[in-house]
Amino acid sequence: MKVLVVGSGGREHALVWSVARAGHTVYCAPGNAGISQVAECLDIEALDIPGLLSFARKGKVDLTVVGPEAPLVAGITDAFESRGLAIFGPSRSAARLEGDKAFAKELMQRYGIPTANFAVFEDMEKAENYVRNHKLPVVIKATGLAAGKGVTVARSFEEALNTLHDLMKIGKLGEAGKRVVIEEHLEGEEVSIIGLCDGKKLLFLSPSQDHKRLLDGDAGPNTGGMGAYAPVPIVNKAVFNQIIEEVFSPLLQALNKEGVEYRGAIYAGLMLTRDGPKVLEFNCRFGDPETQALVPLFPGDLAEACRQCALGDLTINLEPDLSGKHWALCVVAAARGYPGTYEKGLPISGNLTGGENTIVFHAGTKMVDEKVVTSGGRVLGVTGIGKTLSEARDRAYYGLGLIHFAGMHYRHDIGEKGLHYLNQRA
Predict the structure, then answer these.
(1) Which residue numbers in the chain have pLDDT < 70?
(2) Are 72 and 129 part of one and the same domain?
(3) Residue 67 in domain
(4) Number of domains composing the chain
(5) Which residues contact 350 (CB under 8 A, 6 or more apart)?
(6) Residue 44: CATH number of its domain
(7) 66/132 same-domain check
(8) Which of 360, 392, 196, 364 is nearest to 287 (CA)?
(9) What is the pTM of this model?
(10) Nearest Cα residue to 16 out of 359, 373, 367
């Protein structure tokens, strides 16, 4: 197949890597320095839907796989399908599941999908009064797309009120934050479950666990994700089946009742609470950085699975690995200042390709004068693969130690929760 991958981050590098490995011809728009080593990168931005459509038609692309959420929310799938082109990713109406958090929460409430108690506000004064009358911490979310930076866990009233002021009055996140969801803070283990959907059936990838906070020990601000590993030992067969029965099955039924056909990746960010799994968020695409840990573990042809979903006829039947026959762990190397303001254009040195059991996925990189330099907040993701979680972790951190750029920083505790659980169970 000729496959076009849309996007430029670590998730897209992982998707390109997987598609190329299966023997397909791959294009990526716009791509990055690492992606250019395994695919032809196009000078077309991810939100340039007419430009992407033109290339796909002229280049006779068999399948387009959309990485980031913004083009999906903007309606790229509708545009491609109206011209008879196969594309993996939900329609504009289905992508509201991620593009409008208030819509997602209200859908869950209507159809009994377990989630945190919440309220939606457009008026800052009413939001402030709500916060004053609820116990801390509270979670404040911008309803629109915010590149992983729209969630604040406010542990004091001052922090909550400042967050509301920044979002609703100052407009820190633009229109995305003018409307907010305020919800109760859930306690437990966080996991990510991703399913590939053809509108009726789901093919699940292994459970994974993201690390959203910037610093060790889950401290610091929320980010787009500082690392992930898969599978997650706390998600055994019973827990996994409960998630399918209580979250994914009712979600598909809800969307069908709402007249929405969902074809693409469905991501559920879940908290495993004492009362069972509860949904933190739904995303309409592959997770980042979860994909960098999941793709190396996928036993089949990912592009073919995506093609079948895009055409509404998923026949591949693979069970996700819950037992841990193989493990993968990804650590993100970020630029100094991320998730705030950070410097770009810094030269990167070291082993930027990895080895037999280590893969370096590029996220915020580009080529300048034949040298790889930083161009984003999350710069690289180093993934280690092993027969144990400890082995995968050691390989990821070893690979990370062979790379350097000024101000490079990363978490040192990716996977520790999984290791702790395995040690307890042993």
Answers:
(1) 148, 426
(2) no
(3) yes
(4) 2
(5) 402, 403, 404
(6) 3.40.50.20
(7) no
(8) 196
(9) 0.95
(10) 359
